Amino acid sequence: MLAKHKIVTLGLQHILAMYAGAVVVPLIIGGALNLTPTQIAYLIAADLFTCGIATLLQVLGTRYTGIRLPVVLGCTFTAVGPIIAIASTSNLATAYGAIIISGIFVVLAAPLFGKLLRFFPTVVQGSVVTIIGLSLIPVAMNNAAGGQGMPDFGQPHNLLLALGTLVIILLINRFFTGFIRAISVLLGLIVGTAVAYMMGMVSFASVAEASWFSVVEPFYFGTPQFSIVAIVTMILVNIISMAESTGVYFALGKVTDTKVTDQDVVKGLRGEGVAIVLGGIFNAFPYTAFSQNVGLVSLTGIKSRDVMIGAGGILVVLGLLPKLAALTTVIPNAVLGGAMIAMFGMVVASGINILSQVDLNKNENLLIAACSIAVGLGSAAVPAMFDQLPTLAKMMLQNGIVTGSLTAVILNIVLVHTNKKASQTAPANVTVSEAS
């Protein structure tokens, strides 16, 4: 049992790892829809508050919902474009109505996903986890360079900050043990931000402007409205998130040495469905399991659910205290990028470790791993290749995790399952090789 101060510190470390991803979604959507600063501030507060509630529901779990693994839920980037499109053509109330209905769909559809898990053998799991890590690496490198689209992108001071943060994390892991090693990422972020402050790269203006207290209220942007097109769009978004989250669950299972069963996945997806409904009610966003926190669990070796309970509690508090929430936004992108390199790299290493348990001398397994990783990484690295396709197809195919996962599952069915059926029906005097 971890001491309370350690739970809070380790929980804060997980929040800092996912905070940029959680905050950037309301910032992008609010800016695209020309919302007022007050409305954008509410979006951020509502997002953090609901992130905390969703994480607690998933980690604590009930008889029917929650995977009860050390997972953090955050808003999915897949929903950004559709929410902007729906709200631009109608209004935000229609977008939130679609989010609520799509969350109910996820709850009802979760058992179907559970039945599909027989198509996720070790070679598919290892490929999917590897793809998750590789698809995140460009995010880390863009941040390390200062943030995509920023005027100082690629400047030497950003690269040095990222390198320095990464070196600090590595040195702490090399020369320290126990609790200090477990909070290596947090310490790296603190030291990196302190150095950036001395370089004049940190501003506390957003902290000064933020209010001390804010109450999240249901239906802030009006009573939900419903549109068939908007609902179908958000359902497709959440089907993508369900596939992505399934891969994250398997990755967490490997990292925590926990066997993830069909029923565990069903309960986890049900938990996400409930979280999505809450996101619609509190005018936040659809939620999914954040893969960056898997890398942090792997890097620190701390697998306790108590830490994630602490993280969920802190997120709820940050949602109620905007000034504290704003304090965490002063960390420069380059410092975050340096930490992300270590965390996301650990996800890749976990995937490679899973694949090491697979007999890659068998041509079927080799093709599944090779093609799925290539397709997933290619989709993530060159998303523009799908720009000429219809909007819904583009939305799915530009997600490297989805394309890679689908490739792995389809190849497993074609190369392995059909081969097994052929061997079962082949004459006794005919030899048919069987893949594992």
Automatic annotation (TrEMBL):
InterPro entries found in the cross-reference section: NCS2, UacT-like, Xan_ur_permease
Main location, first listed in the record: membrane
Membrane topology label: Multi-pass membrane protein
Record field: transmembrane: 12-33, 39-60, 67-87, 93-112, 119-139, 159-176, 183-208, 228-252, 307-328, 334-354, 366-386, 398-416
GO CC terms in record: plasma membrane
Subcellular location: Cell membrane
Keywords linked to the UniProt accession: Cell membrane, Membrane, Transmembrane, Transmembrane helix, Transport
An example Gene Ontology molecular-function term: xanthine transmembrane transporter activity
Family that this chain belongs to: Belongs to the nucleobase:cation symporter-2 (NCS2) (TC 2.A.40) family.
Cross-referenced NCBIfam families: ncs2 (TIGR00801), NCS2_1 (NF037981), pbuX (TIGR03173)
Protein name: Xanthine permease
Organism annotation: Brevibacillus formosus
